[in-house]
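Thread: Newbie trying to understand structure tokens

Hi all, I'm a second-year student working on a class project, and my supervisor (Dr. K.) asked me to get a predicted structure for one chain before our next meeting. I've only ever worked with sequences, so writing a 3D structure as a token string is new to me. If someone could post the tokens and maybe explain what I'm looking at, I'd be very grateful. Here's the chain:
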Amino acid sequence: MTNYQNADELKSLTLGKSTEYIDEYSPQLLQAVPRALNRQDLQLSSENLPFYGEDIWYGYELSWLEPNGKPVVAVAEFRFCCTSANLVESKSFKLYLNSFNQSRFNSWQTVAHTLQKDLSKISGKPVVVNLFKVNDCPPLEIAHNSATCIDDIDLTINNYQFDRQLLNGSCQNSDSPLVQEYLVSHLLKSNCLITNQPDWASIYIEYSGKPIDHGQLLKYLISFRQHNEFHEQCVERIYTDIMEFCQCTQLSVFARYTRRGGLDINPFRSNENRNAPYQRTLRQ
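---
Reply by user tm_fold:
Sure, no problem. This is what the structure looks like when written as tokens:
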């Protein structure tokens, strides 16, 4: 259990509490979680982040009313910069999106502008919002990529508590030639920091450097199975641990989490300043 779980900023969240669902536009429903809570544990600050990145959310249950009362349903893409001051707490985000259901807006553009304004305010940096028709959303086409899956490695696992030391020694062969690898595991599971509900993800790791032992890497990822942390925080922990123990010259870590309550969260961290790829998986 992380040592910031009882931080004052988390005690007032609606997450884990019985909540009234409001279907009239209510931006005050949004709640912020400071990114600094996790980064203190990783000995990171906003001035020394070792990565670039973004958190991409997809909303599958966004709806509002046209001026004549006819409903509209859309899929929404939200891109949050990893250098923003705050995460948006996921339950508050769901409640906020639900508040659009019986609200009238003049156009798709008005809805997008409203979302961008409110989310940028709560996160502390501009948020990119794109709205798509349900039958025409290219970012959510199932992707086929060349990542090597490491899940079939034969392992004996007796402990499911997080252990970063499982990476220690996974890259110590100094005589090995440098490699470029693109790996994926679909076995990543962690638990919500507040509710303890399971969070499931496929995690993609692209790196250049000394070869990483695939078995040790898989053991490390499995050790998150009973670990309590938000999605974005898990990905930053994985990135910083791999970089510390393996000293990659290039590293990108991208998690595609399964949706809950109509939202999925997809954090991307890299030492290259680039956007996350479009990479929807079957499980999403």
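A couple of things are worth pointing out once you decode it. DSSP finds six helices and ten strands in the chain. The CA atoms of residues 141 and 268 lie 18 Å apart. Feel free to ask follow-ups in this thread.
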